[in-house]
Structures are given as structure tokens and as C-alpha cells.
Amino acid sequence: MKYISSLRMKAIDTNCSYLGLSPLQLMENAGAAIAQSVKEKLGSGKVLFVAGRGNNGGDAFVAARHLAGIPGYIVRVILLGKDRDIGTEEAYHNYSLLKFSRVQTLEIRDSGQLAVSELFSEADLLVDAIFGTGVKGNIKEPESTAIDLINNEGKAGKIIIAVDVPSGLDPDRGNFEKAVYADLTVTFHRMKAGLLDEQAKEYTGTIKVAEIGVCADAEHYTGPGDLQMLKKRKLEAHKGNAGRILVIGGGPYSGAPALAALAALRAGADLVTVAVPESVAGIVASYSPDLIVRKLFSSVLCPEDLSILPDLINSHDVVVMGMGLGRATETLETVRKLLPFCRKAVLDADALAALSGTLFETLAGNCEIIVTPHAGEFARLRDMETPDSPETREKAVREFAAEKGVVTLLKGKVDIISDGKQTLLNRTGNPGMTVGGTGDVLAGITGSLFSRNPAFLAAACAAYINGAAGDLAFEKAGNALLATDVIGKISEIIKEAGIG
């Protein structure tokens, strides 16, 4: 059965908002689904909603309002806390509507109030909306007592419905300190991983997956929600904790490796070293004092460089390789010999020409690789034309990623990112980004994110950030934008997403 993590579900919610489907509308849909489940379980009678201060409680407030308008139902809501402590605007809005909906509400400030409340024993059906997927750490009061009281009523034969996940149950792992025993769990959009855990079955009762109108594109295209899944820099972080990136490139071209390196810095890497042939080292160093430049031998990457590069690779988290290298025979052979030393690598441009089927097999399990080809490079990697139709192209990327064991980011009007199991599309970007250098920028962003995140997530988020930064640059420069304009907007996209 296909399931989803709580973090991924949160990302999809954010992407829905980005596409124009508001959190308020999603909450309305979720609440309506809960109300419908109550009606199916109880034709009429007294219904008690036990609500926390988060969005799980917000769903309950909506459901209570829906039921209150139906003859035969007496609806009551217990809020575990004060209304001023409700955590989101959407939940507070829906709680405020209850006073216009003939719903009796009770705000609980301590567990002693719960113990003397007759609302639990009077109810025919209780709805658990305390935590849902928002449970964190040890369960405190009054929530702990509320769970006990709900379970007591369940033992007495009352119907218990849990909203999204029985409160106390970890939505991803299924473990718990204590949890509500539900007869029915109504979870939203997709099954949550923790609900499938063997020890969780005793608590979930029947599980119903309710559709709440999530936009399909919020799940299949990248968006700002995906960025929220990236690891955030810790307050106690030290130099190097946010990533040490080694860019290997240059020779025939000097700008490409510099662009990748500057993009990696703007995407949050702590330290970026650029290893380039001696012939262009001075030029690359002149681009920015933020770059650490290491001179290699000769005018192109060559076998002599194998005497110093393995140690450099070992002292960095990710290698970004290929930008401006050229395709001299000795260069491509050196790339092949360097790859076994890499733990994580982003391969772009000329480095892709060094790849072959046997090399992929050799590296399997030892080096995590992200490749970032355009359509022509992808055709050469597969030794067949890149399909034109979106569906066939997506299938080709997914199959290639699965066969070779690499995360593949196929650049295009719509980028396609796949690890062979998961696939995402990205449509940020604009025609102005056909200018030279934007692919180098993408490689640098990818390397930076890859240093502290899983490969697939890093590649998908890099595609979004690169395109979104390009869109900001396009607003000012139009089709005259430069790759450096895109670099200048990376930090705005990251900051806007709340991760930098």
C-alpha cells in the first residue's frame, strides 16, 4: 500500500497553498470528511470533539460546525487550552465560528477540569483531535488525561473516531508512549506510514483514507513545500557543518566552475574549493574572494592531478565535477579514475561524457551520484534519442535512474527528477535561462544541498531553487538575464521558504 510521511504531507499542504488552494479550504474539506464519518457511525446523538490547539483541532472545529446544523445531533467541543493559544490562523478562524454555530465549547486549562467534566460520559461518540500527525515528545497535561478519559469511554462501549492518526501514535514509526484506542481512524489524502506498523493496529481500528481535494500537481511537481523538507542549519553549527564542496572543472573554460562554486555558496555551503588547471586558476580566483582555489597541473584535467585530488576529495562532503572541463581523452580518463574516491558526486556537462555502463556498476554502493544532463547529454548516456512526449520522457528518466542506480535530473522546459522509485517534475524557470551558465549554477546548488540531504530531495529542490531564482532575475532583466543574476537571487528563494 502506498503511504506518505508526515513531513511529505506537510510539504504537499504547502505546495497546495503555493498553487492557490488555501490551508483554510483544505481544513474545511478535512472537517467535512470527519463529519461524514460521524454520520455514518452515529445516526443521531451526542458527539464530543476533544481538540488540541493545532490543525488537527481545526479539522474538528469544522466537523463540529457541519454536524451542528443537522437535526438530531448535540455537538460539544472541548479545547485543551485557551483559545488564544490556538496555533494557526485557520484553526483559530474555525474555532471562532463555533460561537455562531450553536456548539457548546469548553476551554480546559488543567487536567483537573477534565476529571470533573460530564461531557465525556454523556457523549455517544467521541472524536479524538488532540494531536494527529503533530505529536512530539512526551505527552503532557491536560492531553495525557484527555487520552485516558477517551479510552475509558471506549471501554464503556462508546464509539471513538481519531482524526488523521490516533493521538499519541507516531505518524511515521507507529511507536507511542500512550495513545487513543480508536474504532475508526480517518486519515487524509494518503495512508500514514505509522498506521501500517504492526503494533499500531490495536489503536487504529478501521482505517479510512479520506480525499480532501489535494491538487495533484502539489504532489507531482516541486514547490516551496519540498524545500521545507531540507535540513535546517542548527543554531550551534560550526564551520563546515553546512557542507564542504569540491568543484572540479575548468581548463578550456574558466567561468563554468566559478559559477558552480558561487552558486554552492549561495545555496548554503560553508566552504567551497575550486580545483582547476593551472592555466585558469588565477582567472577563477579573481571572480570572488569567497572561493578557495587549488591549482592543478597543466592546462586541462590530466593524470598528474591524481596525485593531489584524492586527498582533496576525501576532505570534502560532495564533489561537483564537469563544468568547463573539456573532453580531451586524458581528461575523461582522469574523471573515471577519480570517481571511485568520491562518496557523493554531482556530475554535469563534460563529466557525463566519461560515464559508461560498466563504470556505473563499479561505483554502485560506493558513491552516491546525481547526474544533471540536458536532452542531448541524456541521449548519449542512454545511447538512444530522448523522447519528446512528457509521459515517455518521464518514463525514460525513471527507468535510467533505476537501472544505473543514480539520481537523474533531466533539464528542460519541465525538469524531470527521479531516483527510479520517486519522480518529481519542476516547472520553475523561463526562456531567459537558456543563457550559458545556468546549468553550472544548477550543479552548484545541487552539490550544496546534497552535502546535508538525501540525493533525490537535493536534486528536486535544486531544480526548483534554480528555476525560481531565474524567475526572480527574469522580472528585472528579462531575456537579457545572466547566470550571475540567477546566483544573486538564490538566497531570496531559500529565505522565502524559511530554510535560510
Automatic annotation (TrEMBL):
Annotated SUPFAM superfamilies: Ribokinase-like, YjeF N-terminal domain-like
Keyword Metal-binding: yes
EC number: 4.2.1.136, 5.1.99.6
Binding positions for (6S)-NADPHX per the UniProt entry: 55-59, 132-138, 164, 256, 324, 374, 440
Keyword terms: ATP-binding, Isomerase, Lyase, Metal-binding, Multifunctional enzyme, NAD, NADP, Nucleotide-binding, Potassium
Required co-factors: Mg(2+); K(+)
Binding site for AMP: 439
Biological processes, Gene Ontology terms: metabolite repair; nicotinamide nucleotide metabolic process
Keyword Isomerase: yes
Chain residues that bind K(+): 56, 128, 167
Top-level taxon of the source organism: Archaea
Database matches in HAMAP family: NADHX_dehydratase, NADHX_epimerase
NCBIfam families: yjeF_cterm (TIGR00196), yjeF_nterm (TIGR00197)
Family (UniProt): Belongs to the NnrD/CARKD family. In the N-terminal section; belongs to the NnrE/AIBP family.
Protein name: Bifunctional NAD(P)H-hydrate repair enzyme
Species per Swiss-Prot/TrEMBL record: Methanosarcina acetivorans
